Amino acid sequence: MDLDVYVTAHRAEWERLDHLLSRGGKLTGAEADELVALYQRTATHLSLIQSSSPDPMLTARLTQLVARARATVTGTRRASWRDALHFLTAGFPAAVYRSRRWWIPTALLSTLVAVIIGWWIAVNPDVQASIGAPAELREMTRPGGQYETYYSSHPAASFAAQVWTNNAQAAAICLVLGAFLGIPVLWILFMNMLNLGVGIGLMSAAGRLDVFLGLILPHGLLELTAVFVAAGTGLRLGWTVIDPGPTTRRAALAQQGRAAIGMAIGLALVLFLSGLIEGFVTPSGLPTWARIAIGVVAELAFLAYVYVLGGRAARAGETGDVELADRSAELPTAA
User: Fold this and answer.
1) With a threshold of 0.85, does the pTM exceed it?
2) What value does the CA radius of gyration of the chain take, rounded to a whole number of Å?
């Protein structure tokens, strides 16, 4: 493409678009229609120039012009309570539902890793000795020891807030760093499963695995599910870098990244609930069966939320992405 000829042929349209934009909202109906048509044509021009004859100065000028036109055509929209309600009842659960093929295998494999680590520690005294001295291990696993008093060592409210902050940060890191081919996500998962496996192994070796599970399950079911969802989403984002599918890598990453940001907000709410359970239910004087029942009910409620509301929204076309009007414009691709 001869760039000079192309610019000469279309300069008048770009100048006309710039003139209409400079008039703000003082346009007749015909002029508004003209502005929309010029915006669409200029976006196509920009795409052709970028793909055929890239020129930094011209590209920058047309990019700014297209951005101004898009802002005028689509207008601005403020978030409302309706947006928040849509996010909670459709956007977030649909995003979790659509990523289930990633986080369910992640959950199963991670749990298996924790169990294997716990079994390996429980049956190998040498491994236990490498973790700590016999006196230290007894202090950790004895009745009233560190594993039991951990959940009641601080006031419930402050402990719940601390737990929520730590878990929300871990989930956010999984989502954000997933773009690095998912490698940081795998490391975070392994460290979480290692800590869980150590607890299983040491308490099992001490003959007190039932006590440990009674302390972990009330909050751990929902908490670990949220972590697995975050990890699965991060791994999916990392795979998008490798295989973006039918769209461009940039467009695929943008879509998955926007969904991941929404996922981070939703999972923060889920982890807030698990933090409340960990702060107020786990160390409470309720019978073990009652504490575990609360955890199971919370877990089942979340899964029903994902599979009922999320499944319905996903089948209706919801992806968890932001509204179309709030997305960056995707320019046409030259043939």
Assistant:
1) no
2) 27
